[in-house]
Amino acid sequence: MQAIILSIGDELVLGQTVDTNSAWLSQQLAKIGCPVLAHVTVPDDQKEIERALADASNRCDWLIVSGGLGPTEDDLTRQALVAVLGQPLELHQEWVDQLEKFFRSRGREMPESNRIQAMIPRGAVPIHNSAGTALGIEATLKRSSGSGEGCRVFVVPGVPKEMKRMFESHVLPAMKSAGGGAVILSRTLHTFGLGESHVAEKLGTLMRRDRNPSVGTTVSGGIVSLRLNSRFSSAAEASEQLELTSSACCQALGNLIFGQDEETLQQVVGDLLRGKGSVATAESCTGGLLAKMLTDIPGSSSYFSYGWVTYANEAKHKLLGVSNEILRQHGAVSEPVVRAMAQHAKGQAGAAYALAVSGIAGPDGGSDEKPVGTTWIALAAPDEVTARRFLLTGDREMVRDRAAKMALALLRCKLLGFAAPF
Ligand code: AMP
Ligand code: MG
To answer: What mean pLDDT is predicted for residues 74-86?
Structure first.
């Protein structure tokens, strides 16, 4: 049993409205193990809608259509559906009565144009709307080959709230009672420090396209995430296989994996710090971003008290006691400077750990010796001060974001007691 999700609206194909309906519907279908073959989007154009309905009905068992059920000239989904079904539109009197009552209760007459929202093709099943005025429609579209039972199509309004209500009250129960579904359980594992292709290399055959559970990668903000989808007929098997694949990924990537699902790097670091001591920050190129990330977490006051933004050399000298001699001799983006920044920040804050960042975020300021992206990060810990140089890629925003995340990642490794795996 496979589904296609069809979204209708000029605003969608023009990119003015993001198609959140399809994303939400796909998530719901995944929960009942119904694979989605395609998301299709067409404008408010009757011919295009007819073509999309006819095409989709030949390829799937379930077709969920949203949008174009409004009362105005540009709402044409109903008309397209009757054209494909070869049935006339009929008025659903009960719904007209209900609409008239609804308008009367607000002291208004029902506009004549709203009558169309109570019309459905002959032989179709009306879907009650508890959040709006358009009736939804369930119908069966024959396949062009004439084979099988046909494709069950559900047409619901585009308004997300109405779409969701109808899906939950009508579409979902219909799909569940038809049975034949599987269970899809998913998990996302997050890594930071290596690029997507390096991560893929380490995963090897775990990423084979024909594997179940499947393992795919996505990247966002420098975080490479593994998306695991386990599809089996029973929840128990899906869960057991998901655990096995998850363990295999952890084995292949080791400490590179910092968290799963909704977990963020700052959360993980925060959890590690709780009870282990506090951290202070001394930032140059990140301008406070690292402190911001650490304090994004509610309750961060238990491990974060002091952060310095020392952008100019003068600030590094005055506030963090970095000697002018070192600054002159090595430049602000250098190992001795970040070491001194971290050491002083740790001492002045009385913290167990301190992170210092100094880099060239660009677009200007780079040189042959220190190109844009050159970033020094130091970590002062109770037992030692370490520093590393990174050459971060991307524009100014990316360099700053990656620098702050890299500092967090280094602290995480230190707190867990292993060498950074990147
Ligand atoms: P319609 O049912 O076509 O009258 O849609 C009503 C409103 O719902 C539109 O103006 C959009 O703002 C919103 N909408 C329609 N389709 C979608 C969609 N696929 N995703 C998110 N919002 C939508
Ligand atoms: Mg519309």
So the answer is: 96
